[in-house]
Amino acid sequence: MNVAGEVERTRRVGAGTAVRDLVLCADDFGLGEEIDEAILALIEAGRLSATGCMVAGDRFERDAPRLAALSDRADIGLHFTLTELPPLGVMPTFSPDGRPQRLGSVLARSLTGRLVYAEIAAEIGRQIGRFREVFGRSPDFVDGHQHVHVLPTVRRALFAAFEDGTLDARTTWVRDCHESVATIVRRGIEVPKTMFVSLLSAGMAREAAARGILVNDGFRGVTAFATDRSYRSNFRRFLDGAGERPLAMCHPARPGAGAASGDAIAAARHGEWAYFSGDDFLTDLAAAGIRLGRMKRRTVVAS
Fold first, then answer.
1. Sheet strands (E) in 116-239
2. Which of 49, 85, 106, 167 is 20 to 30 A off residue 154, Cα-Cα?
3. Cα dihedral angle (8, 12, 15, 20), rounded to 10 degrees?
């Protein structure tokens, strides 16, 4: 990718348009080779401004040094997992046999008060610890795989990590998945699913602010992981909307490398890679008056 030429072309297309910043965050780093290869290439090309690491993933420790070398270009965070990957430590109530848990089970137990706080808090601590062991520092942010960080009990344990000094609000921010009903309905993409995630996230920004924790202002990126070439039209709608620090999540994977074992959305990931690595992405950013920026330092990645 000729980054300098592409950025200049984007600047020309968007000339005269008021510029807004967007944090574009790729989830699932460490889960599989083709996911990691996509994220590394897109960060290097200035086409992502954040990525979240699954520290229990098969590829995490192997690929993390290459990601660390790009830490001046993107925020690198912890993509906390309670589903699809095994916990790092013993959780006798949550996962007696140490096997990965399904989202439906975790969600049901959380909403009925059946998650054991001590177990969740300990696992958050272990995953933060693994991140620090590999990167030598705290994560730039914390979010959750399948948004588990916003669930009752999990959210309480996450904020407690800031209160007890495990995390520092001066260096680590948190993803907020809340948006207004009007915004979700107007966008018209996966409305019930997005509404549910947003409802679970209600009050998160207020709780974070009370602890001095920075959160994004505006969230988008929930899709059906379709393979019908609809991703570009969806993403163009994700670029529309208010917010001083909006965040869009994405899930690209570069075909040809090793796919993550059992990855049900691999084909959709390939479609996202095709879009973000192609010319249409830059054209759409410019047309919307959007540039990619980091949350941590509010620095511009592409303009």
1. 141-144, 173-174, 219-220
2. 49
3. -40
Q: In angstroms, rounded to a whole number, what is the distance separating the alpha carbons of residues 218 and 241?
A: 8
Strands (DSSP E) found in 67-162:
75-80, 141-144
Provide, for the chain, the percentages of residues in helix, strand and coil under a 3-state DSSP scheme, each rounded to the nearest 5: 45, 15, 45
Output the CA torsion 54→138→142→241 (10° steps). -120
Amino acid letter for position 40: L
Parse the chain into domains and list their residue ranges.
Answer: 3-302
The C-alpha atoms of residue 195 and residue 197 are separated, in whole angstroms, by: 6
144: left (phi over 0), alpha (psi -120 to 50) or beta: beta
pTM: 0.91
The CATH-assigned architecture of domain 3-302 is: Alpha-Beta Barrel (3.20)
State how far the Cα of 114 lies from the Cα of 94, in Å rounded to an integer.
9
Walk along the chain (303 residues) in steps of 10 and give the mean pLDDT of each run.
42 55 97 96 98 97 98 97 97 96 97 98 98 98 98 98 97 96 95 97 97 96 90 95 88 85 87 97 96 74 50
Under the phi-then-psi rule, with left for phi > 0, alpha for psi from -120 to 50, and beta for the rest, what region is 114?
alpha
Cα dihedral 60→32→104→156 (10° resolution): 20
